[in-house]
Task: inverse folding
């Protein structure tokens, strides 16, 4: 809940963030507390229960936000049982009918909240934060920032749309033919040898002027993205924590089309209008399950420094806070930025940026506090350097949980 005040200050700036998610088409609806779980209709029958189940990306987990309804199976709508506004009323699906108040919902991108749009201030909730498969979903009084009411939206990494937003510059279904003019806006985060950065599509550009249309530059070829030129990366430090992955480092990013002397800027999943910078940018990885979509992420890049963090869990909005857009990499993501170091480590979570005890600092307020110290890391595995290499063959698209291991991770299979 620490990020809510800052995000509310930006709310209302973009029409796309008004009542629906920024993404289009058939979407998963995923509880922030349950990585790898998806909102699921038990069957294509009136009165079928709505639960969370492991994401299989079947028809019963593909939801379309349309005309104030949340639809599944084409003609069924998310429905409040009996139209009762009592806390704990269970959700079901029912054949969509015009002007049915039980089927009216709205989504708020600033807090990932799905609310019953009946004027009763009721929100879709994961009761008790129970992430067990089969948990029935219900409505409760809305509390902004409550993690049991945090629902994100996305896509199966194996079934990406051509574009995820109507206004985006590039594409998401990028194929396998990497090239240096690709406009792919799908990025991956897996290890010091397997990650992507956002960079301008055209030479001699500033991040501030191109944030809406930045494209993915990656260390692995074969995913349809641009590849980071060999020699551009001078130091890479990748950490896997209980709740996020993060990569930091230095290099010559004029080779990624960033104008020499540009101090850079922030790129994140919302931006000022709720659409994200870049608009339509998607981020995936394997650390928390094969093909996990990171719905909360934040990144900075300049001509010679970068940082990128992608978060999961109930505190993802706090750990990937992106309201401190003027503070740069080290203040937001204290870590190892040394040249000549290329390593993947396990680590503890950093303290949340901007939070000092019970106080939250507001950007621009004097005095500016010091950044938090970097969290401790361990089990570091070094490599001599990071160079372009092919991505490995594809594996199953379904979510499979795995344990953290200290050994160097296998590159993503996408």
Result:
């Amino acid at each position: 809940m620490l990020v809510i005040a800052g995000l509310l200050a930006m709310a209302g700036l973009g029409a796309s963030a008004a009542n629906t998610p920024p993404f289009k088409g058939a979407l998963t609806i995923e509880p922030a507390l349950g990585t790898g779980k998806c909102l699921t209709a038990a069957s294509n029958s009136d009165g079928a229960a709505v639960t969370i189940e492991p994401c299989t990306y079947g028809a019963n987990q593909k939801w379309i936000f349309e005309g104030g309804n949340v639809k599944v199976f084409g003609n069924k709508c998310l429905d409040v049982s009996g139209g009762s506004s009592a806390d704990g009323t269970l959700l079901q699906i029912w054949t969509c009918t015009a002007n049915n108040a039980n089927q009216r919902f709205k989504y708020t991108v600033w807090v990932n909240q799905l609310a019953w749009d009946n004027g009763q201030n009721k929100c879709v909730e994961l009761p008790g934060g129970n992430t067990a498969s089969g948990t029935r979903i219900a409505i409760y009084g809305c509390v902004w920032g409550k993690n049991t009411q945090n629902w994100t939206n996305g896509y199966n990494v194996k079934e990406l749309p051509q574009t995820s937003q109507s206004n985006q510059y590039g594409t998401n279904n990028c194929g396998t033919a990497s090239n240096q003019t690709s406009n792919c806006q799908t990025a991956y985060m897996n290890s010091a040898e397997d990650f992507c950065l956002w960079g301008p599509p055209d030479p001699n550009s500033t991040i501030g002027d191109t944030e809406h249309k930045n494209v993915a530059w990656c260390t692995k070829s074969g995913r349809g993205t641009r590849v980071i030129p060999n020699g551009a990366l001078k130091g890479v430090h990748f950490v896997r924590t209980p709740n996020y992955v993060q990569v930091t480092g230095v290099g010559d990013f004029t080779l990624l089309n960033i104008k020499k002397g540009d101090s850079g800027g922030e790129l994140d999943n919302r931006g000022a209008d709720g659409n994200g910078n870049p608009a339509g940018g998607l981020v995936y990885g394997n650390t928390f399950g094969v093909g996990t979509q990171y719905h909360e992420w934040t990144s900075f890049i300049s001509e010679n420094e970068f940082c990128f963090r992608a978060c999961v869990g109930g505190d993802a909005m706090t750990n990937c806070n992106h309201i401190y857009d003027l503070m740069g990499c080290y203040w937001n993501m204290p870590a190892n930025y040394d040249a000549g170091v290329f390593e993947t480590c396990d680590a503890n979570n950093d303290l949340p940026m901007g939070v000092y005890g019970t106080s939250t600092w507001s950007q621009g307020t004097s005095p500016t506090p010091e950044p938090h110290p970097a969290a401790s890391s361990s089990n570091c595995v070094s490599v001599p350097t990071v160079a372009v290499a092919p991505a490995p063959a594809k594996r199953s698209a379904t979510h499979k949980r795995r344990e953290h291991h200290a050994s160097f991770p296998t590159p993503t299979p996408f």
Observations:
- The chain has a mean pLDDT of 92.
